[in-house]
Design brief:
- With 270 residues, this protein is of the alpha+beta class.
- Helices cover 31% and strands 22% of the residues.
Length: 270
């Protein structure tokens, strides 16, 4: 029975090939591990006619960043093409990461991403758990936009505007980062300062810890019937329990409207 790939792994990270001091990527070191991670972490569903060819994915990804013309490419062909494109280590590193980003975009789930080693180190640091209260999203052009500002947060107190684009964090440009990589840089130790440049304007925020937003509720009376409207803005741990409690207090409702327009972050299990 054929096993066909449907859903790709959610995250690829921590490749041992990265250098000891900074992440200058070498295609010959990292891309074999990249392919191995894909092959080992795919989910397979046997009862489907869906087929996926990684060699075609690689060729499309390579063509999107270079003059590659072939319809198919194995990982060795990718490595050879990238290595022949430049002799400058930084340019080769950037091309390698761009290839991985483009390949991951073409996987069936369309939500896989590569996290650089520095970002992963930040994410795993238990001392970096305080934040600013902004919710970010990366658009199709690669820019990061603030889609929500949480109540009681440093960002709200500093009057950070929803819709602003993030240019840099502590003077470091954010272009090329993943959402998780950017979030890892914005978060940090409690009461520490972070400088965000938003649409060219500098904001200095002091990181804090604050509760996630609870479901907001409102009641509409339409034709004598009670319509409960609940807005959910967070899927963090405990959000499901908060929603259950909100619904339990309104058993006499005739209908329920769940407003998910601002549900931009959280945990899948919730």
């Amino acid at each position: 029975m054929n096993r066909n790939v449907i859903l790709a792994l959610l995250m690829i990270f921590n490749f041992a090939a990265c250098g000891p001091s900074k992440d200058v990527l070498k295609p010959g070191d990292i891309l074999p591990d990249f392919q191995r991670a894909l092959e080992e972490h795919y989910y397979f569903y046997p009862d489907t006619d869906y087929k996926y060819n990684l060699h075609e994915v690689y060729a499309e990804a390579l063509a999107s960043i270079s003059d590659f013309k072939d319809p198919s490419a194995d990982i060795q062909a990718v490595i050879q093409h990238l290595e022949a494109s430049t002799t400058k280590p930084e340019e080769l590193s950037q091309s390698t990461q761009r290839f991985m980003d483009e390949a991951l975009k073409r996987l069936p789930d369309q939500s896989s991403y590569y996290i650089d080693r520095r970002s992963l180190k930040f994410l795993e640091d238990d001392s970096r758990k305080a934040g600013t209260g902004i919710v970010i999203r990366k658009d199709e052009t690669g820019k990061f936009r603030i889609v929500d500002v949480l109540e009681g947060s440093p960002a709200q107190r500093s009057e950070v505007n929803i819709g602003s684009h993030i240019d840099s964090v502590d003077g470091e440009p954010v272009q090329g980062l993943s959402v998780e990589g950017l979030a890892a840089r914005i978060r940090g130790p409690l009461d520490s300062e972070v400088k965000l440049t938003l649409d060219g304007r500098l904001y200095s925020l002091v990181r804090a810890q604050f509760p996630g937003p609870t479901p907001a509720r409102n009641t509409w009376n339409i034709s004598g019937k009670k319509i409960l409207v609940v807005q959910i803005r967070s899927g963090l741990k405990g959000a499901a329990s908060d929603l259950k409690n909100t619904l339990a207090d309104s058993s006499d409702r005739a209908a329920l409207v769940l407003d998910l327009r601002k549900l931009n972050f959280g945990e899948f299990d919730e």
